[in-house]
Amino acid sequence: MSDSRNALAENRRMASEEMHERVRAAIDELMRSGITPSFYAVADLAGVSRSTLYRRPDLRRMVEEAREQATRLHPSWRTALNQLEVENASLKQQVVQLQAALAKALARRQSLRFSTNKPRYEHAVCRFEAEGRAA
Predict the structure, then answer these.
(1) Nearest Cα to 11, choosing from 3, 59, 45?
(2) Which of 34, 63, 97, 126 suits 10 as a labelling partner, its CA being 20 to 30 A distant?
């Protein structure tokens, strides 16, 4: 009886170590791919259930630490990101100014277009005659 218990305990320990290795390999693969490890992705890749990842403190900690590590920005990236955010805000402001200028120009064009009662072709004829050419 003792031998069977020892065998069962050894099987559970080996299965646990194998699961631990599969979860570690799944996390490593996701990190190499540039994907932030989530419980869903790790469980799918490792072939274990999400509830197993949540229930086992060692596996849960592995996923949470990997997720935290993946979301941390390198200091040089943070500086670049801040610069890009400032540039983006400036560009948004320029877009708003250009939209306002375009709206103003279109309104002016519209008002000039309807400011005379003469059809457009008459303007061309008048200009043509003013240049000394016969119509």
Answers:
(1) 3
(2) 63
* Terminal CA-CA length for the chain: 119
Contacts by 88-96 with C-beta closer than 8 Å and gap 24+? Answer: none
Q: Which helix (H) or strand (E) holds 90?
A: helix 75-113
| Under 8 Å between Cβ of 124 and 114 | no
- Measure the CA–CA gap between 77 and 47, rounded to whole angstroms: 34
Question: 């072939």: which residue's tokens?
Answer: 47
Q: Report the predicted TM-score, pTM, of the whole model to 2 decimal places.
A: 0.51
Q: Write the pLDDT tens digit of every residue in 26-43.
A: 999 998 888 889 999 999
